[in-house]
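re: ur msg from earlier - yeah i can do the FE2/S2 (inorganic) cluster complex, just paste it... oh wait u already did. ok heres what im feeding in:
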Amino acid sequence: MKDIHLIALAVNGNEHEIVVESRRTLADVLRHDLGYTGTHVGCEHGICGACTVLLDGEPVRSCLVFGVQADGCEVRTVEGLADGEELSDLQKAFSRCHGLQCGFCTPGFLMLSEAYLSEQDTVPDEAEVREVLAANLCRCTGYQGIVEAVRQVAEERMG
Amino acid sequence: MTAWVGARVPRKEDRRMLLGRGRFVADMARTDTLHAGFVRSPHASATIKSIDVSAAKRVDGVLDVLTGADLGDPFLRSVLERDEFVPTKMPMLSGDRVRFAGEPVAVVIAEDAYAAEDGAEAVEVEWETGPVVMDIGAAVAADVEVHSGTRNCLVDLVMFDDPALDRIFADARLTIEATFTSARVSGLPIEGRATMAEWDDRDSQVIVHTSTQVPHQCRSGIAQALGIPERGVRVIAPDVGGGFGQKCVVSREEVVIAAAAMRLRRPVIWVEDRQENLTASVHGHEQRYDVTAAFDADGRILGLAADITCDIGAYSVFPFTCAVEPLMAATELPGIYKVPAYRARGRGFATNKAPTAPYRGVSRPQIVLVMERLMEKAAARLGVDPIEIRRRNMILPGEFPYTGVNKITYDEGSYLESLDLTEKKITEAGWYTERDRLREQGLLAGIGFSCFSERTAYGTPTMSQRRMRMTPGYDTAHVRMDPSGEVIVTTGTSGHGQGHETTFAQIVADQLGIHPDQVRLRQGDTDLTSYGWGTFGSRSIVIGGGAASKAAASVAGRLRKVAAHLLEVGEDDVQLADGRAGVRGVPDASLPIAELARVVHFQTHQLPEECRYGLEARESADPPGTFSNACHATLVSVDPETGDIRARKFMVVEDCGVIINPLVVDGQVRGGVAQGIAAALYERITFDQEGQPTSATLMDYLVPTATEICPIEIHHLETPSQFSENGSKGMGEGGTIGAPAAVLNAINDALAHRGAEFDHIPVMPEDVLS
Ligand code: FES
Ligand code: FES
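and the outut:
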């Protein structure tokens, strides 16, 4: 007998009600049950951060959260960053600064950065940005473009 | 007339990735897709007594469990056509013997990935464990054999053997003997391997969506293993989340998933988890160099001999074989230095570990490390400045093209200029002052250099010397303009993060006088593209881009003919630029290129015979290879209390010939350097004595984060290659090739006064403390 539950969650403002097994991760719920495949899974053990989404505004590793734990929550994923077809300032900065190559880690870095930037009221220095971004792994870029993108957006927003 | 080549064009790939609309294999599972989970050996060496799948088949959600026998025992055997090579048979699912922990023996097909894992746990295998061979020493001793009758030596090549060497070593002012080692590491793309296959009745073929760098090689491997014609397999690489070599060989899992989809007539997906990726995919770089080198009193190298041994793991990967590392190392060790006499033996030894494959750099991080350490050692012993000794030995301006003792011809490079510029830049930037400041703070600090070149774009003239039964090298592009004047380019290369959709478009746009947004690249689909060899070995821009450039030039020639006819001028007077065909010296006479395309397709009868019926061309490129070069420098600090080692500053002066897109080049350099620093300081695949992997998670295998990787400053020199279509040189691996030697030299500089010297990577805190 499967251990199943009915949960309700809002993803990027869209309401969903679904039945999930208790062991199903939020990453799988988002990706496979609800079709938000922008969230990526790179390790399934909480290290790489590719699966980072915002759960009630806080960045979480969706591979370490069960779907049932998101019951009644607001989830924000990479699909919710742009305004329709218009890229957000952060997304534009990633492209301008070459903060992505294969793009697999990118949704996680975007969501992590989005959460971080939304809490800032001063422009952080590079060392601090690196500390924050150290939560996630990228294998392609050497991080410099990502760091630069986040710094530039901080300046634009706080500037 | 170049407008786009060289421009910092933002990448076309970015938008979909940033919107979360990339399409990776794992995104393709549909509700009717079945999920596969592999049953893997928990032992490094064992005989399989029996496999009982009955309990697994009863697990909730499990549809089927397949063993090798169920699939007709498919296998792959990659072959080097040399007597010194011993081919090994690699079963796709082992039925009788396993040779490393993680080797697949069965696959469970279930409704979802969770049930597939439940099923895999319920498969009962009776193992009889055997003794293991876990390092090169044990492999050489051959008390235990990984493959019976081989003495564990799967390849043994004496590449060069100058008889004068022993005399040279005996007589030289300085003869150095040293051993250098590098640990086993993983390419570790953040997207692991993933494959989804489905049977297509309409075309009677299995369509295999897979995260690969080499779609055609993958098709050939699947077809060979399953005994079906290549037409029966279509391989599609969608967005691929990094490869670094790990995806440039054919995975057993790719073959098995294709076979399962054919058998079940249902889509089947397998998405590797990180533990599988770290233990059961492929590794690289585990090598040992026993080297003797002779120098004269001025520090000029007189002779070099190297005994190179590589731990290649349990099998020869397909199609490169296990010889890829020893061959590369033995052939290219002298690098940028003028070595007059040379001997090299390269051997590959089987061990009870996952196979090795070409990981970014392929032996060159190691050979550069060997040469750069030798230069430093000789300089110290002879009292010569360590930078000066490099100048005395390197191939200098005016000496290109230079054919070395290793029979390699080096095309024009800027070895000296890059070293000079690096030294100047770091001095201006105050690195030496900073080093002193760190030392005053009680830290150990050092500066290290590495000078190297990187052979790239190995075409068949070069690859054929390896004598692989499947010899990669050439590539073919097709360029086709549609009636609205937009262009589709196909290529056999298969980018996965390198920005080819952008850079190929820049190359083609310049030839045709149009905007890169009007050019679309089709890659990574064996049904849409001519046979090609994928993306590895820094080959794509020179070979794939070269072919695209030639094909576009051919289409441009047709456009000029059409324009000449419609404008009633001579063909040679027509210029294609800014979307128009204009006439030299007559500013008013011009036609939009889209209009030419319209006429060719819709009113072809208006044109003379040779201008009719479409605007397309197919061309191939197959260069001998070209050498990009660079000089790396780094400032490293070492905490004497904790042993913590940090790369604090990193500078690269690089020369990859004509730069197509500086944004992309800088990205490749930085990503490469990060992997080089990783190999020098952090990453190491480890096992216990029984052969159990002890670095099976990212808690144990330490991938550096944004705090471990410092900013990387880059300067460019541009020496065009005469061996490439557009003057460019490949540059995908240089960062990884040069960085370990620079870091190691910097550590040794920091520790010099303590009498410690390291010749291995990675150097870990515990090394410093002991
Ligand atoms: S997939 Fe969740 S942290 Fe790696
Ligand atoms: S862009 Fe490839 S892992 Fe970050």
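cool cool. The pocket of FE2/S2 (inorganic) cluster (ligand 2) is lined by residues A 100-106, 138-141; B 190, 242, 497 (CB under 6 Å). ping me if u need the other ligands too
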